[in-house]
Structure formats: structure tokens, C-alpha cells
Amino acid sequence: MARLLKAHGPMSKKEIREAWQEEDPDGKPMANSTFYDNLWALESRYGIHISRLGRRFRLEAASQNESDLYAQLFEQRQENTDHLNLLATQVEIEQAAIRHVKLQFDYQPPNKSGYRMTLWPYGLRQAGQWIYVTGWSERHNEVRTFALDRIRHLETTALKFTPPQEFNAAQYFRHSFGAFYRPGQTPEPIVLRADAALEGYLRQRPLHPSQRLVPVDEHGCRIELCLVPSADFTARLLSYGPSLEVLTPLSLRHYLGHLLRLAADQYKPLPEEKK
């Protein structure tokens, strides 16, 4: 909405909704709730004030800082339309979670066929650069987490739901690494060894809230964790290369060793290099 007002100047609510629909990749009309959700997000999230003159809305830049913010937001969104769509999706989901109304959307998992589903949104979670929504999936009959960038044709329904009192996001994800966690998974104690250079980094940027660093000698430290190992966790450990070693559990140590040997095989000298 901010980009439309910046480009066209003062616009009525009808004009904004029509322009939004013209730019939507699916030709989806702007819901009345989405209009007010955008006003709320611009004011509360970015501190951008939109004033109203009669039936027309316009941007107000009260300071150079706000003008710089406009420029930054518009430049990013013009370069990548997906960012604008993702922000609109995020705002719509946030408001649905606050109002306790169900969402319907098409979801496209990686390497699988997509499907239409209904979700009771409990809240959003950010892991790395990605944003996810967690809630009760009527399709799967359990609490699940979905990546926002894989959601298509999002619709906010008028159907209300009652969030479970026992659901607590902090507790639910307490033993997870990243955004995904399935109830019933048992966390494991994990012990790593890091060299001195990596030790300093991990003191400032812990791997996980359960992390405990135990000094060993001037060459490094021992790292103790308690979590449910995942593909994201394995990839993070591999990213530290020879600076990190898994001590226990042995199953994780052997698995990473297997992956590293496969990677090393990829870099054996080529036939022409042996000549």
C-alpha cells in the first residue's frame, strides 16, 4: 500500500483496492481487512504514518529518516515483487492469529504435490531468513508449521477457532533447531568440541538456547546441547568444517563423518590432474 501511495499520490480506498488487484499476480482483490491490516502494519511496524484527507489517503514523511525508510522499502519491493507478496501474507496471517479466525490456502511442499488446506493460525516464527506459521492443520489433524513463501491463494475466513490454552510457542519449540518440530520427538544430549576460533564466535552467537560452553584448554572448548537433531542442525554443524567435531551421540558423529567422506570423494583429483 505504501508503494502505491508513493507512486500515485493521494488515493481513495476504492482506488487503492483496485490498484492492488491489478498488481496481484493472481488478480486477487484486496480484502477490506487487508486494507486496514496494511495501515496497522505500516504504522506499528515501520512507523510510517498515513493521513486521511476526506476520502483520500496519503503518505506523510515527517523526517528525513522516514523518507529514507520509504526509499529503502520501495527499492527493495520494486526489485523483488515476491517480497511485497510475502509481507502482505505475513500481515494477513498475523491479524488472523490475533482475531482467532481460520485461514485457507494452497500449500506447495518441496518435492511433493501441493494441496488446499485450512489452518488455525497460532502465531509466526522466524528461523534464519525465513518466516513460518504454526497452527492446527485440519488436513493433518495436528499442529504443524508451514513456510510462508510456499503459501498461495491465501484467504482469511469468517470462521472462528478457539486456541488451546495449553499451547505455548516457547515451550513447543524449546527443543527444536530451526522452525520445524513434531510433538513426541525426544530431545537428545549432544556434545561437540570446537576450536578456539569457533569458541569465540559461538559465545556471541549460540547454536541453541540450551547451549552450555565448557572450557577445555587454550585450543578450544566442549559444547553441550539438548535438542532434537534435524536436517537444519546437521547442515549447520557441517558448515563449521574442521573447526567443529561431534563427540556424542555416536549415531550423529557417524552420520556426519559419512557425509564428510562423501564430500571428500567429490574432490578427489580429476583424471587430467593426475597426468
Layout: helices, strands, pairs:
Blueprint: H1 2-8, E1 11-12, H2 13-23, H3 32-44, E2 49-53, E3 56-60, H4 64-79, H5 81-99, E4 101-107, E5 115-127, E6 130-137, E7 142-147, E8 151-160, H6 169-172, E9 188-195, H7 196-204, E10 212-217, E11 220-227, H8 231-239, E12 244-248, H9 250-266
Antiparallel strand pairs: 1-3, 2-3, 4-5, 4-8, 5-6, 6-7, 9-11, 9-12, 10-11
Strand content: 25-35%
Count of helix runs: 9
What is the CATH architecture assignment of the largest domain? 2-Layer Sandwich
Task: Detail the poorly predicted runs.
Answer: none
CATH topology of the largest domain: Alpha-Beta Plaits
Strand order of the largest sheet: 7-6-5-4-8
Provide a descriptive summary of the structure in words.
There is one protein chain. Helices cover 38% and strands 30% of the residues. The chain is α+β, with helices and mostly antiparallel strands and 275 residues long. It has a five-stranded antiparallel beta sheet with strand order 7-6-5-4-8. A four-stranded antiparallel beta sheet has the order 10-11-9-12. Helix 3 (32-44) crosses helix 5 and helix 4 (64-79) packs across helix 5. The protein is elongated, with a radius of gyration of 24 Å. The model has no long low-confidence stretch (mean pLDDT 84).
Summarize the structure.
The protein is an alpha+beta fold and 275 residues long. Helix content is 38%, strand content 30%. The strands form 3 sheets. The protein has a 5-stranded antiparallel beta sheet with strand order 7-6-5-4-8. A 4-stranded antiparallel beta sheet has the order 10-11-9-12. It has a 3-stranded antiparallel beta sheet with strand order 1-3-2.
